[in-house]
Design a protein that fits this description.
Layout lengths: L24 E2 L8 E2 L4 H32 E3 L6 E3 L2 E2 L5 E2 L23 H10 L8 E3 L4 E3 L8 E2 L1 H9 L4 H13 L10 E3 L2 E6 L4 H17 L16
Antiparallel strand pairs: 1-2, 3-4, 5-6, 7-8, 9-10, 10-11
Amino acid sequence: MTRRRFNSWCPPTRWPSSSCGARRTWLDGRGGTTPSARSWRRPMTTYKRFSVLFMRAKDLAAEIEDGIRREAVVVHRRTGEAVYAYEVDGFGNAFHMDDANVPSLLSLPYLGFVPVNDTTYQSTRRIVLSAATNPFYFQGAAGQGVGSPHTGPGKIWPMSVIMQALTSQDDDEIRACLSVLRSTTASRWFMHESFDKDDATAFTRPWFSWANSLFGQLIFHLAESRPHLLLRPRAPPEAVV
């Protein structure tokens, strides 16, 4: 980055001081490594504005979280458990489903809203991953997972299978997710937007960078937390006769 010179009355060889302008300092986008003739007024005004925005955003976040915990945690009629509803209308009515897109109910621990072992989340997770309680959970010959109204009935999104693995604490469940992801690329070896529950060659979007990036994150996560799920077991050594 090219360094700016101070005004002629303040030589560049001198650090800014009261004798050559009390407001002149070293400022740039990286927080102060390049000399600049800007005054303190601009960054301080910007700082104050961002401080106000930060406090407003913090208050709004607290209000939203309070509203979710007060209005969106309801007792599911079928299971009798307290769960997070997908939609509420503020009049006591709730709609239960989930969408494969992130954010989603399935992704709440991934987003940092709740810990993965949260009781309400685990109850919600069970209804999300069941065709009996989620109208957009599909099962077929090709695999099983959450879909989306965007792609219609019978279309499973690899993104949801990835998120199921990212929020799972069970090795067998994670292995099953990896198996579905590996077998539904239609020999293209990339994550699609969706695939038909009975025919993985009937897919949407041959290249879906969002899902591919999330899949990469899953592999890094497993490599750090559960590497044994990614490594093939070694064959036993042959007996020496």
